[in-house]
Design a protein that fits this description.
This protein has about 190 residues and is an all-alpha fold. The protein has nine helices and no strands. α5 packs parallel to α8, α5 runs antiparallel to α9 and α7 packs across α8 (about 145-165). It is elongated and about 60 Å long. The termini are far apart.
Length: about 190
């Protein structure tokens, strides 16, 4: 694995445990056993590193959605929640998007724009999956799809935060089941 890839991997772990403003180039350099100046060869600033992280998360999300293939829409929705459940089970990590949102007011304009694009892509995917769930008869007709997509995104972000606070690693999955009860045909 090359230095840039290792640096992004280290930064991802630091981000999910400490927040964007909670780690420095020095933390990454120490983790990799290199000099801090070596990181500047790949990232001229922390904002450049942040943009690389957002891009990496965007690519990973796209690859993840493609890996689902032709599975049923309700299964896709469950796997989305499983992804967040896995984060919670891994040292009580939180979602990178949520971390960036916490630090939002300190981010540069380019990072804010990139973060919004990542969010929009995730929301559009969820909306499509919800439409398929309704079409398949797994969720009731009449759902306000954009509002339910926002609810889902808010739910997973908040669930990760509360799970970290309370140590409840099953919170994400429990909230998924509650959401299904509210949105299914009665």
């Amino acid at each position: 694995m090359d230095t840039k890839t290792q640096a992004i991997k280290s930064a991802k772990a630091q981000l999910q445990l400490k927040g964007f403003n909670g780690f420095s180039f020095q933390d990454i350099a120490d983790d990799l056993g290199i000099r801090k100046a070596s990181l500047h060869y790949y990232f001229s600033s922390k904002e450049d590193l942040g943009l690389a992280l957002i891009s990496d998360y965007e690519d990973a999300f796209l690859q993840w959605t493609l890996s689902l293939g032709e599975v049923k829409a309700l299964t896709k929705l469950e796997r989305f929640f499983d992804m967040f459940q896995d984060m919670s089970s891994d040292k009580m990590k939180v979602c990178p998007t949520g971390v960036f949102c916490i630090d939002y007011n300190t981010l540069g304009t380019k990072m804010k724009t990139a973060l919004l694009e990542l969010h929009k892509g995730q929301k559009e995917w969820i909306e499509q999956v919800l439409r398929e769930c309704v079409s398949d008869g797994d969720l009731r007709k009449g759902l306000k799809i954009p509002e339910v997509a926002n609810l889902i995104l808010s739910m997973v972000q908040g669930s990760l935060q509360i799970a970290r606070l309370t140590g409840s690693q099953q919170l994400v999955k429990n909230n998924y089941h509650s959401l299904l009860m509210m949105c299914r045909n009665r």
